[in-house]
Amino acid sequence: MVAGRKRKTTSSCRRYRELRGSATIADMSENDDSVRRGVPYAFTAFAIWGLLPLYWKALSAVDAASILACRVVFSLAFIWIVLALRGNPAWPRIFADAKARITLLLSAALIGINWGLYIWAVNSGRTVEASLGYYINPLVNVFFGTIFFRERLTRLRWFSFALASAGVVALSASTGSIPWISLVLAVSFSLYGLAKKAAGLDPLEALGAETLALAPLALAYLAFRGASGESVLNHSFPVLALLAFSGIVTALPLLAFAVGAKLLPLSVLGFIQYISPTLQLALGVLAFGEPF
Q1: Model confidence over 122-144: pLDDT tens digits?
Q2: Which phi and psi angles does 270 have, rounded to 5°?
Q3: What's the pTM value of the predicted model, to 2 decimals?
Q4: Which end of the chain is more exposed for a tag (fewer CB within 10 A), N or C?
């Protein structure tokens, strides 16, 4: 009788282990499939961001502030179309909350600074310095994580942070000046990420709200330039077409990133994100002939 119960118990345990093993294999297979589907989206997003200097260089005949203003206006138009097709966007309700409005205005100001400085840097022959900002950015995120979210750093992360800091010091020593473009781009984008996280919107809806907040300033600047006889409409058709499509090249990588971020673990996403500054650095040195 006892032996029978033991055999039954042993059989049950074996069956449980088999089921657990099957579940583990299924989970691993599902995770592998998720990674396989997510990598192309993430790669596309970071590749487009990495190649954007070519786009802004093609618009070098236009001043950086006008490019930024057009980017805001046409991004807003394109995102509104996408959100209308998706239906029921959350950000109109968010604007009804005073605290959320302040958060979104802050994130809008930060992304405006980041975009404007980046465009100016590329068209001023400082793409290499701009690329360094996005190499530093993940480490600034880690630093802010320890301050705002009390995240504990491993020794490896402390070492990485120290190494990046040493790189900034070395660059400052070699150029004789502080790489302020790199630092402002890195810090502004990290703070932007924090503000967006606090707003609680998905990436596209957040960008829709931010460009809506920036649009009055952008339109006012374009009107001022037009009244001064320096309207962007004075440029050639190819330039105007590039300005109009700046909204699409802003939103498309964000859509691809949103899909990739849902499918990929952070460890994989963190590795892929270095594609962007690496491409920017390569363009700065090889295509634009900047010193390195």
Answers
A1: 999 999 999 988 888 877 877 77
A2: -65, -35
A3: 0.82
A4: N
